[in-house]
Amino acid sequence: MRLKRVLPLAALMLCTSTVAGTAPALADPQVSPTPSGGPLRILLTNDDGYNAPGIRKAFERLTAAGHDVTIVAPLTNQSGTGTKMASAPTVTVKHPEPKVWAVDGTPGDSVAFGLAQVFAGRAPDLVVSGTNFGPNVAGLANHSGTVGGAVAALENGVPAIALSTGGTSAPDPVTTVNAMGPTLDFAVKLIDRLRSRARSGPLLPQGVGLNVNHPVVGADGKGTAAGVSATFQDPQTVLEPQYADAGDGTWKMTVKVALRPAARGGDVEAVSAGRIAVSPINADWNTGPADAAVTAALLAGLRP
Predict the structure, then answer these.
(1) Packing angle between helix 173-198 and helix 53-64, nearest 10 degrees?
(2) How many Cβ atoms from other residues are within 10 Å of residue 253's Cβ?
(3) Domain spans of the chain, in order of start
(4) Alpha-carbon distance 261 to 144, whole Å?
(5) Cis preceding linkage at 76, omega within 30
């Protein structure tokens, strides 16, 4: 899914408290005002599965920060499922322990079930998706189940943050898991910033979420990022598939990282420099008024 660039993040963060007082009501009337200075009710999901290290570390860290966290996440690994949602007449859901629900479906299915059942009657204050094992920058974000979980929340009027941990190369298991610690430390700070600026209003402007990509820093992955950058999604694919004909009607496929020069101000540039990339996202396919005007001019005088 193509996620358009919306408000520059610096402006978005500065205007959050103002927007909270003037924006129309959220799409879901059950969304409650954000607790002023108090703990948030958080729906935590991911695409790596409900028992993956990233989501379990996120649960521990967000709970330790005082928030009321409930996991509603896929039963199995759903990486790369994007915004897919199942259309089957039934769905299997397990409740293996308190505060944990495992949905046999995609991140979108998990968020949908969480909003309709687990949080029935009163939507959570925030949906956090991740932290993902590996990055979700550039074209990777289009197909990311982590981002897809955040999009499912935004579609329902609930503020959302997608969290990912990884550099621009294939993730190393040990260092990436280690880097999830600093990722979640930053996530807590970011949520505190949103909450303090919301002043009992919505954490983010209506329909806007954040895609956060934290780099792996240091030989052990436990290093501190060089800073935080307000970014946009770099318009490159990152991964390049290659096919080899096996001669029997099947093709062997391999995928390699094929980075092009990073767009200035984009998420790839930031993560490559060891900085945390924070990009605003939304849940629709609109590209903005300028492109709408170009399309209108293109269609002028055209008849069926």
Answers:
(1) 40
(2) 9
(3) 9-299
(4) 22
(5) no
> What number of residues does the chain have?
304
Task: List residues bridging with 243 in a β-sheet.
Answer: 253
User: Is the model's pLDDT at 56 over the cut of 80?
Assistant: yes
Distance CA 169, CA 110 (A): 29
Q: What's the CA gap between 146 and 132, in Å, rounded?
A: 7
Whether the per-residue pLDDT at 120 is higher than 90: the answer is yes
Q: Provide CATH code, domain 9-299.
A: 3.40.1210.10
> What is the value of pTM for the model shown?
0.87
Position 279 pLDDT exceeds 80: yes
Eight-class DSSP state of 157? T
pLDDT at 285: 86
Q: Compute the average pLDDT of residues 146-154.
A: 98
Neighbour count for residue 52 (Cβ, 10 Å): 21
> How much of the chain, in percent, has pLDDT values that exceed 90?
80
Residue holding tokens 């990233």? Answer: 54
Tally of CA atoms within 13 A in the half-sphere of 226 that contains its CB? 13
User: What pLDDT sits at residue 36?
Assistant: 58
